[in-house]
Amino acid sequence: MSAPKTVRLTIDGRAVEADAGTNVLRAAEKAGIAIPHFCFHPGLDVEGSCRMCLVEIEGLPKLELACSTVVREGLAVRTTTERVRRARRDVLEFLLAEHPLDCPICDKAGECRLQDYYDLHGRHPGRMLEPRESRAKKVPIGRGLILDRERCVLCTRCVRFLRQVTGTGELGVFERALRSEIGIFDGTPVDNRYAGNLVDICPVGAITSEDFRFRTRAWFLTRRPSICPHCSRGCAVSVESRAGYPLAEGERRVYRIAARENPAVNGFWMCDLGREGRRDIEAGRLSVPLRQGRPDPGLSWTEAAGEAAAAIGRIPAGERGEKTAVVLNGRLTCEELARARASFVDGLGCRNIFFADSRPGRADGPLLTAERTPNLRGAVAAGFSPRLPDLGELAAARVLLVFGSRLAEHHGGPELARALSGGPRTFLFAAHAGPLDGLAEMAVPVAVPAEKSGTYINIDGLAQAFDRSLEPAPGGPAEGAVLEALARGLGLDRGGGDGR
Amino acid sequence: MAADVLIVLAKAVLAMTWTLLLALFLTWVERKESAVMQDRIGANRASIFGLRLFGLFQPFADAIKMFFKEDFVPSFARKPLHWLAPAVSFFCVSVTMIAVPFGDAIRLFGRRIPLQVADLDAAVLFVLAMLGLGVYGILTGGWASANRFGLIGSLRGAAQLISYEVALGLSLVGLIMVFPSLRLSRIVEYQGGLLFGVLPKWGIFLQPLGFAVFFLAGLAETKRVPFDLPEGESEIIGFYTEYSGLKFGLFMFTDFLEVIVFAALAATLFFGGWQVPWLGDGGFVFPWGGRIAAAPWAVTVLRVLSFNLKVLFFCWLQILVRWTYPRLRYDQVMDLGWKVLVPAGAFNILATGLVLAVR
Amino acid sequence: MGSAWTVIKEILRGSAITARHFFVNMTFHTLRLFGLRTARRGAVTVQYPEEAKPLGPRHRSLHRLRPRPDGRPSCVACMLCVTVCPSECLTVEAAEDPDPEVQKVPARFVVDLNRCCFCGLCVEACPVDAIRMDTGEIRLAALDRKALEVRLDKP
Ligand code: SF4
Ligand code: SF4
Ligand code: SF4
Ligand code: FES
Hints:
The complex is a heterotrimer of chains A (500), B (359) and C (155).
Chain A: E1 6-11, E2 14-19, H1 24-30, E3 54-57, E4 64-65, E5 76-78, H2 82-97, H3 113-122, E6 139-142, E7 145-147, H4 157-164, E8 171-174, E9 181-184, H5 197-201, E10 207-209, E11 222-227, E12 236-241, E13 254-259, H6 272-275, H7 277-282, E14 290-291, E15 294-295, H8 301-313, H9 320-323, E16 324-328, H10 334-347, E17 352-355, H11 376-381, H12 391-396, E18 399-403, H13 407-410, H14 413-420, E19 425-430, E20 442-445, E21 454-457, E22 463-466, H15 479-489
Parallel strand pairs in A: 1-5, 16-17, 16-18, 18-19, 19-20
Antiparallel strand pairs in A: 1-2, 3-4, 3-5, 6-7, 7-10, 8-9, 11-12, 12-13, 14-15, 14-20, 21-22
Chain B: H1 2-37, H2 58-68, H3 79-95, E1 105-108, E2 111-114, H4 123-144, H5 148-178, H6 184-190, E3 194-195, E4 199-200, H7 203-206, H8 208-221, H9 245-270, E5 283-285, E6 291-293, H10 296-322, H11 330-358
Antiparallel strand pairs in B: 1-2, 3-4, 5-6
Helix pairs in contact in B: 1-9, 1-10, 2-9, 3-4, 3-9, 4-5, 5-8, 5-11, 8-9, 8-11, 9-10
Chain C: H1 2-33, E1 64-65, H2 80-84, E2 90-96, E3 104-112, H3 121-125, E4 131-132, E5 149-151
Antiparallel strand pairs in C: 1-4, 2-3, 3-5
The complex binds iron/sulfur cluster (SF4) (3 copies) and FE2/S2 (inorganic) cluster.
Residues 75-81, 92, 125-126, 128, 130-131 of chain C line the site of one iron/sulfur cluster (SF4).
């Protein structure tokens, strides 16, 4: 592909270069000049319905839409003239004339374009004397989404998303002119695995999600980037959590997970499975270490790792590789996998290395893959060939190290119990609780992916590094630290690690 | 003989009781007087069975509290001395009351009983000496607490008291020159005469400068505001920082005793003690002619009453002063003592001597 | 010498002022004691638990949530007071209301008086004028910290 042709234009007197074919709005954005807009979304086709993006273009008598004007060589655009400002204020006044004063109870408040633009460009007093039109305020449109027609500014981003991205087209604009409203067709609610994106793209608070509704306010949230660990696509996400006082009883730690822009992987979207990953971080976690199936808050992960290393050390030197079995998983980062390989394969000569992960699901839509593991490519890159263990292989070992709780998804609890009783000494390092906890000699909690940093290689072979987006619970280390402690306990640490 | 001893004992007990009760009462007076001066009401909540009586029970409530508070002695304190200090203070001050005449004499069962515990020869010196000894209480208190701030406070106190001791002594020399005696009973008797045939011959009229010096020095001796540098309760730390409970109470009480002692001395030395103007043994004899006869018991009662009133007045005055003025700076205290009062006292002696010589 | 006189004069003047207060006040106290009620009193003291000064109209006392006509609090759980509160003493948990015109109501509204500094910023911040500090309740003492965490959404 040849380098895209560029054109030169001036915006507000500044010389700007833009790829041919983009619109003025994007070109200005790239140059650091923000043009207010509601209906334009870079991931969707241009609609030009909100009229917020009006700019002045030299030589044209009327104001033009920045979103639907394609850049041309020598174009001279002005975004700060009095005419443009007046136009913005007037458009806002029209939008707000029919808008409810809902900000106090609106989930969007704090990240709402209407609020921001009113503050920047509006600041006009209200002139409406007539009562505001009332419309349906709580219309369930499927998949836990609620539509508020009073707040809607009819930008049709939601309609376009469902037509252009998922291709399902459940939403449409009904009626005409003043009575236009967004709605579903009779009996066919929104039902696809990307519906959560509607909340993200709605520029106002017209579409809200039941899961997040009223839980907190946007400005209380801390947003940190991460990578979604729920399929091998590796979408860029932002984990929105709330730390610090006051954390009332039963309050959430992670309030929601939203999509982050990454053109190389997910564009602007993510699937609902990833959004639900919020629960994966909070619910079903293994919270207290267990010893022989009984809670033992005094048991630290360092002690468990030391004990496991000592157990391996007690196997006669020649048989260690034979008699040790390790179950890893595809949620380990490349760094952790490399360490595991150095310790178990290169150090111990262990051949019984298995992988246990969630069962694959059905690939769906543009992003969701069938594989529900973020880093199986990383495992292959580290030199493993992931496969599930059968029970006999596990029972034959004298020491069994299990990372992750997914083994129990493939083998039923009773069978596992039979295989492990009287067999190997089992040590479990898992983020979530499961039937395996009671079977292991020691079970200690570890971090979920959002709580650690590392690199995942996605289904297309793209390596993506990420940083921890949440503070781990005290005493819940990343598996990397556990692996490091194990290596040290086995006398295999040759100064490779960072010494921590 | 045994009767004499009994009589002295009884008088001692009476005098002590009078002093202690008055001191207790003064704690109430202080609260109330300061309140009235400041347009407040003052402590009025202490009650017995709902009987409030203007808060008159407050002193008892305070006393009970003092008794039951933890008596905290710092581990590093010198314990015996820590105990001794308030006792020394208390003793030295209260013992001066034995030299003070409460009235002239009564006749009981054919005996003449002077209303005075002990008519000492050198009563004035005794009183000065005892007040001077009080410094030891302060010094030991500060030193025994082994607290630097306490020690510094007690040193401040000692320096102040010793300075004013000098002025106090000097102010009395003139008085002793006029009333040639060191016996308080004699001094009071001298003041029964008339000056120019009209005025009672009180010390204040003969020694006005002497009284001024005596009053100021005496205020400083009681170490209350505005001369409360040894203690400085409101901001600088004083010698009884490490005291609490009963022992602290004893120090506080000693303060009030000092007020009483000073009031009694002022009344005795400069305001005629138990004398009532123009009242002789037989009744009133007014200089402008006219007389009112009075029975001997009535005379005695009047005289004791007069003494008490004078003492109360001076207590009131001291409290007024204490609640009116702010504390002096330390250098001002020292300046006032050495550069004003001592020279003034010396000048007073000189002037008195000259007048006496000329006459 | 002149300054010495000034000092002595001022000292005496000071005493005269305090003595005047003493005697004037004493006169009124005495009159009162004998049953004469004068307009002026000997002391300005207000004997608090028995007699209380009326609170100023803008006095800030214990918070309350203004009720809606149906008796439920008019708070819409917007958490603006929580946001503005400098002492971080407010906790609001929102709940869904079946009425689509109301939608958001507080499920729990707690003010922690252990922390509250009575600045009144929450009152200023409230967009629906739901929270007010005009109960006139100023006797806010308790033997237990928990008792000072006041639930405002329940009467
Ligand atoms: S959509 Fe925006 S402006 Fe409208 S109520 Fe919600 S926060 Fe307020
Ligand atoms: S008065 Fe001030 S400190 Fe108290 S709850 Fe309101 S905002 Fe917070
Ligand atoms: S009291 Fe007012 S500011 Fe606070 S949550 Fe309720 S409505 Fe919002
Ligand atoms: S963004 Fe251009 S019209 Fe909406």
